[in-house]
Design brief:
CATH class: Mainly Beta
Number of helices: 0
Order of helices and strands: EEEEEEEEEEEEEEEEEEE
Pfam families: Hexapep (PF00132)
CATH superfamily: Hexapeptide repeat proteins
Largest sheet: 8 strands, mixed
Strand order of the largest sheet: 1-2-3-6-9-12-15-18
Shape: globular
Helix content: under 10%
Structural class: mainly beta
Number of strands: 19
CATH architecture: 3 Solenoid
Number of domains: 1
Protein name: Transferase hexapeptide (Six repeat-containing protein)
InterPro entries: Hexapep (IPR001451), Trans_hexapeptide_repeat (IPR050179), Trimer_LpxA-like_sf (IPR011004)
CATH topology: UDP N-Acetylglucosamine Acyltransferase, domain 1
Length: 135
């Protein structure tokens, strides 16, 4: 039986230990909290301090940086980058290759399309078709 963790050296030369999530085999850093019912696919990285709620799905190639919050039933598509301290509200869907900036907030139930960028600190809310609502 293979080991259930991997050590990776960061930019500062420090070694971070990631465990493989039981539900999808994505890499979860020590200090992150991922609900057992959430799916984190292989090839996804979840950094320390992240919280991922029940029913969330983080696809392959996604990177969720430190202290981000992913709400219940959120769908994070492949190759998405969620910046540090960002918050994604319950039931939101984030499209492929989208970048969510540091400390940005995506409202509950929002639909963010593919290849979009949400700026640092920006607050975004959309209707069910993905059209942005006025703040």
């Amino acid at each position: 039986m293979g080991k259930n963790y991997i050590d990776i050296e960061d930019d500062r030369g420090e070694t971070l230990r990631y465990r493989k999530h039981a539900n999808g085999r994505g890499l979860i850093a020590h200090g992150a909290k991922v609900h057992p019912s959430a799916i984190v696919e292989a090839g996804a990285y979840v950094e320390p301090g992240v919280q991922i709620a029940a029913g969330a799905h983080v696809a392959r190639g996604a990177w969720v940086e430190t202290d981000a919050f992913i709400g219940p039933d959120v769908e994070i598509s492949a190759h998405v980058h969620v910046g540090p301290g960002a918050k994604i509200g319950a039931g939101a869907k984030i499209g492929v290759r989208t970048i969510v900036g540091a400390h940005a907030q995506v409202a509950m139930g929002s639909l963010i399309g593919d290849d979009e960028s949400i700026d640092e600190g920006e607050r975004v809310a959309t209707d069910r078709r993905g059209l942005r609502l006025a703040a």
